[in-house]
Write a structure and sequence with these properties.
Elements: H1 10-32, H2 39-54, E1 58-60, E2 65-67, H3 72-79, H4 81-99, H5 107-130, H6 136-165, H7 172-204, H8 229-236, H9 248-257, H10 267-279, H11 293-331
Helix pairs in contact: 1-4, 1-5, 1-11, 2-4, 2-8, 2-11, 3-4, 3-5, 3-7, 4-5, 4-11, 5-6, 6-7, 7-9, 8-11
């Protein structure tokens, strides 16, 4: 569901950057209130896992379309909505800058559509189902409802943002009728994947789950260090099994225009495209000009490692900056 700059007017893109920035600022303040940094390594590892999982597009049978995990709901169920949102920003930022996945001008909209709903709406649903205790039935129900609802809201936002921009000939009604059903199917599959991962963690390391808790003396069969290799394996190996079909947004565009992409128009879009050409060292998750499987594997591994580093270092730097600012204010 990564939007391209060709779908957005600069004004709409600016509004979405502002909305995402407000949510990010709120998340930083909430995260900074935590007394320790125990969540930061988990954010890094799970961010790398979500990045890797997003490389595995799964086919939606009978449609000629594919989908991929967004991951906001999954992250919220593990580190809470605020830490999850900041983690998703790291994932989407690296995808945009390093791999040219989604437009740079559209990054604020993509953060809102793919991260805000999954992390905050999905987080609310997770909390509602699990605040009185966890079991497999609650995990499955929360995952399915949270993923389906967040994908529906994200798909609806894409249609509304495109309509508000008014720079394409896409008819709103037809675009909406293409986007919602296909993302309903994608959300259902994501819900099943999310439920499977969370159910595994519930059995192997329940203390990792947000609001999950752990009984005194309960054995934790899975260590955080032991999970570090999972994103690398997923990104470097399983990503080769990804579906070649267009994702839900591309499929919807193809049905209406005959192409999975629209031409970028306007000087502002062209300016952001030039910046992205300079930063995208691994465009389309491969070496420039290559479609070799080895390049895809290498790009996946590099991306997972970069996301891990960016999330951990970024969160620590932001927390230090906020702490210094607070100390300075108290001194005055």
């Amino acid at each position: 569901m990564h939007m391209a700059d060709a779908l957005l007017a600069p004004g709409v893109a600016g509004v979405m950057y502002a909305c995402s920035a407000v949510a990010a600022g709120r998340s930083v303040r909430k995260l900074n209130q935590q007394p320790d940094d125990k969540a930061v390594p988990v954010m890094g590892v799970m961010g790398a896992f979500v990045f890797a999982a997003q490389m595995i597009n799964f086919t939606i049978p009978g449609t000629g379309s594919s989908g991929h995990l967004c991951g906001g709901m999954l992250l919220a169920a593990i580190v809470g909505p605020y830490a999850a949102f900041l983690t998703m920003i790291g994932v989407l930022l690296i995808q945009c800058l390093l791999f040219a996945d989604g437009g740079l001008m559209a990054l604020g909209a993509n953060i809102w559509n793919m991260a805000f709903y999954g992390c905050f709406v999905g987080g609310l649903i997770w909390r509602a189902f699990t605040r009185k205790g966890l079991n497999h039935a609650k995990i499955i129900a929360a995952s399915l409802i949270g993923c389906i609802l967040s994908l529906q809201l994200g798909a609806f936002s894409v249609s509304v943002e495109t309509l508000a921009s008014g720079i394409t000939a896409l008819p709103f009604g037809a675009f909406l009728l293409a986007m919602q059903p296909i993302h309903l199917a994608i959300g259902a599959v994501e819900g099943c994947i999310t439920a499977a991962v969370l159910a595994f963690l519930y059995e192997a390391r329940p203390s990792l789950l947000w609001l999950g808790g752990v009984a005194a003396g309960e054995k934790q069969r899975l260590t955080l260090r032991g999970t570090l290799g999972v994103p690398v394996v997923v990104a470097g190996g399983l990503s080769l099994l990804a579906s070649a079909f267009p994702d839900g947004l591309e499929w919807s565009l193809q049905r209406l225009t005959g192409s999975t992409e629209l031409e970028t128009t306007g000087p502002v879009q062209a300016f952001f495209a030039r910046i992205q050409e300079w930063t995208a060292l691994l465009p389309d998750y491969n070496f420039a000009g290559s479609d070799a499987a080895a390049g895809t594997s290498a790009a996946g591994i590099i991306g997972a490692v970069v996301v891990l580093a960016v999330v951990i270092l970024g969160v620590k730097l932001v927390k230090k900056a906020v702490h210094r600012r607070g100390s300075s204010a108290q001194g005055h």
